[in-house]
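Question (not urgent): is this output format expected?
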Amino acid sequence: MGIGDIRFTVLQTVNEVQRKLGLTSSATLSANKVVTELVDHINDVVSDLSDFGNWMETLATAKVTAQVSVRDYQLPSTHVVKNIGDVYISTRRGPLRGVDIDTMRIMTRTTALGQPSQFCIYGTDSNGNPNIRVRPTPDSSNDGALFSILYYWKPPIYTTSDASTVIPFPSRVVVLGVLASYTLRESSGSPTPQYTSYQQAYLQARKEALNRFRGDTGWDVSFVPSRGWRR
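Got this back:
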């Protein structure tokens, strides 16, 4: 099984949706108004999937070099960063502890040099990606150490020029989501039986796809209380 069996390009996604709607496949993403609109629906679905959880398909790490007396660092990424997973520094075994901005501001009212042990997201750079502030501020013994930052990135907004761009999420989920989104628009926002069918299938597929790499071990037990009256 290759990547083409799991993920589709933007054009492949558009064409499968068109086939399921009884329309003719297209060679480009600017072939007609329907095709262009479907690209917009793809963007809506991809954004919904990204917001639904932290996907292994969008997991990445970045390295940043610590500098003496520098407490704020930019995350070097070509992606739009969705959120930060954890932060390590090479001179410390465990991860830095995440704190909120208020706590960080209290702690940094006085200068403390040493090995960083806390971090927070402190504003954004010109690309909208998070800046990271650490405390204590690195001292000379941590100069040149490497911060390892685990993060999840957000897929870009696709245009009609992205026909061959591969969407990172499973194709079956994206297709179902686009079908649901398009049929709802076609019915002027009225939830028709066809839309409901697509939407229910999409929501179920979305949940199962996110859970794919989470390892169902069978050790967790859930107890659901009865909805009836007990005497």
